[in-house]
Amino acid sequence: MDDYSVLGFLAAFWLVSVAVVLVYYVFVSLGLYRMAKSSDLENPWLAWLPFGNTYIMGAIVKEMDFIGQHITNLGIIYLVSPFIVAIASAILSLIPILGWLASFALSILLLVFSIMVLYKMFKCFVGEKAVLYTILTIIIPFGAPVCFMKAGSNPRLNDSTLS
Question: What local confidence, expressed as pLDDT, does residue 160 receive?
Fold first, then answer.
C-alpha cells in the first residue's frame, strides 16, 4: 500500500466518523429538545448546545433526593457538578493514597448522580420503562439517540404519577 492509499483510507474513516457523531448528536439533541418543550422549559433550544443539554436534562427532572439531600434547581446543579468534582479531585489528588481514594469516591458519586438524573428524566416521559431506557442509553453505543428520540416523542407524564 502506498502513502496515498493510507491517506485516502484515513480521510474516509474520518469523514464516516464525523457523520456518525453528527447524526448521534442531532438525534439526542432533537429528543432532548422535544422533552424540554413538552416540559414547558423556558429555553428548550439549549438542548442543541454542548453544556446547555446538560442543564436541560437536570431542568426536566427539576428536583430529586440524592444521598439524603433534597436537591432543587437541578438544572444548575447538574451542570456544575462535574466541574466541582474535577476541582475537588485535583485538590484531593495532592494527598497520597487517602486523597486518591476520596477522588475516586467522588467520581463514583458523580456517576451515580448522572445515572439517577438520566433515569428520572426518562421516567418523566416513559414511566416504568425508564429503567430499560437508562440501561440501553448507558450500555448500547447507539442506544442514546433511539431512547432520547422515543422519549421525546411522548408527552410529559403528570408529575403526580411519577413518585
Answer: 61
